């Protein structure tokens, strides 16, 4: 892409960008889908850390369990859980849209709010289940 | 009726080639819908495998080392985890590629980051798969 520096003396119209629009739920969910994707990308290091620790014997396993059980560890895991569910439900929404369905405004709003409420609910459910075991 | 999609090299080609043949494998990246399609295929695979992984993690939460290594040595768990890692790193590499291409406009930095993206995905994938296999076959 060419750099967009206007030459001296010309004031060319600039295409409106994100800051000009009032935030709508579908726009916010689109942005959050990408952010959660990036978070999950680096979150795979957590999966690698757990698997390698478990494969390295008892001491490493309990060490990893201890680290993940600290308040910061739990916070990161909680965020990871939500990012995972949010990206998953957002992905399902995109698959529905891929078929060409669900593009009327009411359905778009329903799908977007549904994926947000669904991801929060699933995260809380899973953590309740985790503490019950 | 001829619709010209690009300059036609020879009259023969214009008559014989179908419109599909003309666009197949083209596009700016010369790979058609390959990126889009692999993103979708791995998304569907991830959907199934992540649901499995969530239940596995729930069972691993309170597990002792003995219980955890026994669960992770189960062949079905090995296969599912292996597939999740493979599908996951392909999916995340494609996604990060799009993010880099969208936001990094300097050509040199973009190429460096695209390479690092590939290296990261392969390194994480190789590490996880080795761990999964070690858990399966014992140390």
What does this structure look like?
The complex is a heterodimer of chains A (133) and B (139). Chain A has helices at residues 25-55, 58-69, 71-98, 105-132. By secondary structure, chain A is mostly helical. Chain A has a single domain, classed as 3 helical TM bundles of succinate and fumarate reductases (Up-down Bundle), CATH 1.20.1300. The longest helix of chain A is centred in the first third of the chain and has 31 residues, at 25-55. Chain A is elongated and about 65 Å long. Chain A starts with 24 loop residues before the first helix and ends with a helix. The mean pLDDT of chain A is 91. Chain B is built from six helices and no strands. Chain B folds into two domains: 1-32, no CATH class; 33-137, 3 helical TM bundles of succinate and fumarate reductases (Up-down Bundle), CATH 1.20.1300.10. The chains are: A mainly alpha (133), B mainly alpha (139). The A-B interface holds A 1, 3, 34, 37-38, 40-41, 44-45, 47-48, 51-52, 54-55, 57-58, 61-62, 84, 88, 91-92, 94-95, 98, 126, 129-130, 133 and B 40, 43-44, 46-47, 50, 54, 57-59, 61-62, 65, 68-69, 72, 81, 85, 88-89, 92, 95-96, 99, 105, 124, 127-128, 130-132, 134-135, 139.
